[in-house]
Fold these 2 entries.
Entry 1:
Amino acid sequence: SDIAPSLLPRPRRLLLLLNPFGGRGLALQWCQTHVLPMITEADVSFNLIQTERPNHARELVKGISLAEWDGIVAISGDGLLYEVLNGLMERPDWEQAIKMPVGILPSGSGNALAGAINCNAGLEQVLGLELLLNCAVLLCHAGVAPLDLVAVTTASGARCFSCLSVAWGFISDVDIESEKYRHMGAARFTLGTLVRLASMHTYRGRLSYLPPGLGELPAGGAGEARVGGPPDELLVPLGQPVPVSWVTVEDDFVLVLAIYQSHLGADLFAAPFARFDDGLVHLCFIKAGISRAALVRLFLAMEKGSHFEQECPHLVHVPVRAFRLEPLTRKGILTVDGERVEYGPIQGQVHRGLARLVTG
Ligand code: ADP
Ligand code: MG
């Protein structure tokens, strides 16, 4: 009774946001059965809120008092964490807010970030409930690491913060078209891939990028805004030509993928060399002319992350700081972190270590 209560260690307080419709809709059941008992045991106190609609998590996060929480955890697929990060960045105090540790307990159909966290911890690649349990244990360990975010701008001028990828062509087509197989969980991507392979499209586009170390002098800054995040000092507005220090290729592509984490899905080890805060966008693309058989081989090898070892001449990887993609094919699908965005010119630049991720 002589110890002031304020000197006693207090339990970590986590805000858990759960999307009851993520993946196969098992999030709440899995959470109640497996996760909540584990984190209670680890002396973590928490509030669990179920999201009621898209953008609910984003709005909640914009309104919370930062001092009340030690972390915000999305119990969902990657989509809900994307909302959390963007909600934090939309706050007037974004510079403080984005330092809030964010975590993920994978229970959606797209669980790329969880796959990356699991891999980073040196654990064997697993799926479903096993991946959720691994991530729950890591969440209890509470270690936090800096996480790169990529500011992505589309033709309308809208800017968002992305933590996973921008995709065009084969991958975004599969991601969006396979929404109708959502009830299958992660298997939706396998089926979607097979369906898509049967009618392989190619897309014409112009891809420009700024390699690291090359002319990283500020381009002038497309983003004058201090409100809503840091300025994109490497970018010029989409209506203007890219700076002269950039490299441009115009070609026909099967896919273009700008990825910043190691995983594209829990079992898609797409960029084995990527680190949470390497300050790099890994620009990967497959050029037209690849055979279906070679494309299948690449996707099969991606489970183990050995696809680059095949030295396929159509597959290219360039690490960059910033990129611009200008689709020339009139119709197509673009995704940011697996969610569809407006089709047209799109560009992004990395902001190294801007966010903080619970990695265990
Ligand atoms: P999945 O990996 O299965 O797609 P996500 O967590 O990525 O799961 O969620 C998919 C989408 O569902 C997200 O864009 C999110 O905004 C939206 N969402 C969140 N809560 C709800 C809800 N209660 N009802 C419908 N959609 C929701
Ligand atoms: Mg998703």
Entry 2:
Amino acid sequence: MEKPMSVITTERHGDILVIISNNPPVNALGAEVRIGIDKGIKEAAADDSIKAVVIRCDGRTFFAGADITEFGKPPVEPWLPALVESIELSEKPVIAAVHGTALGGGCEVALGCHYRIAVPSAQFGTPEVKLGLLPGAGGTQRLPRVAGVELALELTGKGDPIPATKAKEAGLVDRLAGEDSLVADAIAFAGEVKDVRPIPRIRDKTATASPELFETFRKANAKRFRGFDAPEANIKCVEAATKLPFAEGLDFERQEFTKLMFGTQSAAMRHIFFAERKAAKIDGIAPDIALRPIRKVGMIGAGTMGGGISMNFLSAGIPVTIVEMKQDALDRGTGIIRKNYEATAAKGRMKPEQVEKAMGLLTPTLNLEDLADCDLIIEAVFENMDVKKEVFGKLDKIAKPGAILASNTSYLNIDEIAASTSRPQDVLGLHFFSPANVMKLLEVVRGAKTADDVLATAMDVAKKIRKVAVVAGVCDGFIGNRMLKPRQFEAMKLLMEGATPSQIDKVHVDFGMPMGPFQMSDLAGVDIGWHRDPTRIENIRDALAAIGRWGQKTGKGFYDYDEKRNPSPSAEVQKIIDDFAAKSGATKREISDEEIIERTLYTMVNEGALILEEEMAQRASDIDVVWIYGYGWPIYRGGPMFWADLEGADKIVKGLEKHGFEVAPLLKEKAAAKGRFN
Ligand code: 3H9
């Protein structure tokens, strides 16, 4: 987007000076903006004919925060905290006129103002915690003083915004403007308050709370905050607002902010913020390429995946025709979709009429020909190449010209599938992750012949259904599952050499993963991919599956489970492991946690390097996005390739070589050049 000539302009409306920011796309508070506002405030102070000031933004939003691209670069004055301070200390009333999203530093600018007026659709929030930070321009000190300690904890600790209507109830907003008359209403408001003295400043208020409030908040969110540094820093700062005078509170906030800003967690989370946005861009394809319209979607298969995938489109208001082979499977599938929606409604996250609206967009059928008018058809049938080829062969005859044909395969060759049609340019992979209506990741698999506009349309559709999409090339398991393989393989080998499932899982959970490889197996089903022949026992998994240890669903897998699904180590499993180890001649030994990291996580990085070398991912940050949004890699470690940069490529190479792994040339190159992936 082109920058306007001057990002800050001023206008006079009688004795009111209006400072206007126009810094697309989101009015981030970069140096030019800060300098301009500062100048405007000084201009008002120096001019006796000005009685009050309004600060507002052009474009789609009020300031969406500090300019994150400036972080880590040499600071340019005025720094945001100083600017907020100079607004607050202005001897002429300053009014913030808010539309869109007043986020982070933007919210803090509004808090520095003496009055806040907002359109009802505006949102207020301090999402810094999601970047591993805290509102460092006085937000942690002013929010509790104006909106109460409880709300300040929610806003800063969790980072989710609140609507202007709620902000008004909390005292954060003084007045709601008409949706289309913000500027006029703000100027009128300024006229009303221009002579009011003393000028109301948030710094003059006090924040009080019972001491238990903080502990209760910590406890209630312990699971969500596990491993993260920023939530605790936010809590401590809000607590400081209740104990320290304002100026000392600001000092405390500054110290905590600086610690976070120069720590690795925030660097990782900022990396992911930009990585997620970069992932949407396809190298070599013009961003303005004409897209194919997607007005109607066809879904083949009403099982868990098909149903979940359909829900994404229904929720986005896009009609879906869903096909099954048998009536009972169709009824079961549509029944589950309804049940899922009703469960969401029961939790208050959807209105009953929205459930009906979504269900009204669903057309169940047993007839594949009913997909003839669909713009995008997604296949989610049994994971078998012959079955997929047959389906695509049929689709080729049914689908209208230009329809996009997608497979939800998680590892099969898209080019081979595409070759069973006469239109391989219209074919690609859309690999959703289970549960498909919940998981944010979508791997968009680009076949050798996939047309540019087909790929670009798929990326656009992904955004419409609120997925984070990453382009992957055709290879076994694409990006995510391909990297999972060495991890699973090594985890099994480690069992034979003396590690236990709980030791390996603990290392992964301590690292920040939601669960370890064996906990994941038990959740997904130990029998997944099993050949279903109880007499053929080739590995530990076969042995467990053969005796019904299928995981949580049968009450036992790698672990034993009680009625509440609490796991405990199993003597039966240990015996199976020991028997296999004895048969293979492996000598058992003490396995260190370090070795588990080297063999299960360094091997993933190694595979990631191969993926980059083979150009199966566009960039290292795309791999990070896959692992954050598809597999629960802790966001504060920035994804496997970002983490590799933190560990250092040379350390990873040494770790891999120690255990005899073949190291990817790209990884070796990085190690030799002390280079980074990101
Ligand atoms: C902070 O304020 C610290 C202070 O407390 C203390 C300082 C001392 N800076 O998301 P979109 C870019 S920390 C720079 O696709 P949407 C973004 O990269 C900040 N760039 O749009 C993208 O670029 P591109 C606290 C930014 O409509 C383009 O804008 N604030 C910033 O889906 C469009 O973004 C936040 O954390 C930024 N602050 O969503 C808010 N924000 O086109 C972060 C965006 O090249 N921002 N960009 O890919 C957001 O949450 C969303 O962008 C927003 C719009 C909801 C505003």
